[in-house]
Amino acid sequence: MADPMTTPQSDTLSAAFQAMADPTRRAILARLASGEATAGELAAPFEMSLPAVSKHLKVLEGAGLLIRKRDGRIHRCRLNPAPMKQAVDWIEVHRRFWEARFDSLAQYLDELKSETRSSKETQDDPDEPAR
Amino acid sequence: MADPMTTPQSDTLSAAFQAMADPTRRAILARLASGEATAGELAAPFEMSLPAVSKHLKVLEGAGLLIRKRDGRIHRCRLNPAPMKQAVDWIEVHRRFWEARFDSLAQYLDELKSETRSSKETQDDPDEPAR
DNA sequence: ACTATACTTAACCGAATAGTTAAATATTAG
DNA sequence: CTAATATTTAACTATTCGGTTAAGTATAGT
Questions:
Q1: Nearest C-alpha neighbor of A88 from the set B99, B90, B50
Q2: pLDDT (tens digit, 9 = 90+) per residue, B54-73?
């Protein structure tokens, strides 16, 4: 019913953030960042069961962060960076705003005035379109 | 029993990623990035109920992404960038690995050898990729 | 063919999430 | 004092999540 911004993009973003929100999954990604690994190798460091890790791999795969290449009976996994990049990009867009606001007192004061004057001249706003 | 890396840092990281994993919450952050807003103002664009948004604000606050300043009966909210920065930093650390691996075959081979030699020469811009 | 290996899927459970409506709280306005 | 405003908290529900154990599937080794 609510359906708040369910664009295809936000789905991948949501999935990526969601995937990275779990410490186990982050540890898996960290390990994967330094090279390919099998499901078993990825599971080894953890005390949880293999099926639990298998689920985590599925979540990562679902978020597009992990690519599986089945080779015989072993599943070789590697990192796919694209969704991470998307996530970083999303954050960076907004970082520009608060950096501008925190780096410069003048802009901060200007923004305070903008409640009455509404002279939003913040050079480029690539995120807040039609207003 | 599992307890996979529950350092104080990973908790804030998990909370930040978790908070950003929801489209509604990302929209709130986006709005917040362009200036302070009251809870009501933040809730307005959404079709969901006010309590629902209130909960989202609480999640964002819990993740340290939102700071509330109660001023009379209105709650003025502003963005706190710190956890976002931490999230970006976490991703970037791993991005360096796969960038090295994907951008240059030479570096890839070098990295394969680096198990014994460990001659890592990361001559890069730490913020934006080449593109 | 038989068995160990490397996984996944199924079925289940408790805890957390995301929403709802109704009630509570606190402040401002009349 | 009373009422409207701004917002949270409470109570409830449905769904998702992260884990478990048990069973299934496919390959490799003997």
A1: B90
A2: 999 999 999 999 999 999 99
pLDDT tens, A77-124? 999 999 999 999 999 988 776 666 555 555 555 555 554 444 333 333
**Under 8 Å between Cβ of B80 and B64:** yes
**What are the structure tokens assigned to B68, written together?**
């509330």
DSSP state, A6?
A: -
Q: What domains does chain A contain, in order, with CATH numbers? A: 8-80 (1.10.10.10), 84-116 (no CATH)
Residues near A108 by Cβ (< 8 Å), separated by ≥ 6? Answer: A101, A102
Rounded CA-CA distance A89/B25 in Å is 17
pTM of the full structure: 0.77
Residues of B with CB under 8 A from a CB of A: 1-6, 10, 13-14, 17-18, 20-24, 26-27, 29-31, 33-35, 46-48, 52, 79, 81, 84-85, 87-88, 90-95, 97-99, 102, 129
The residue among B50, B77, B45, B74 whose CA lies nearest residue B61 is B77
Nucleotide lying nearest to B43, CA to C1' measure: D7
Residue A125: predicted pLDDT: 33
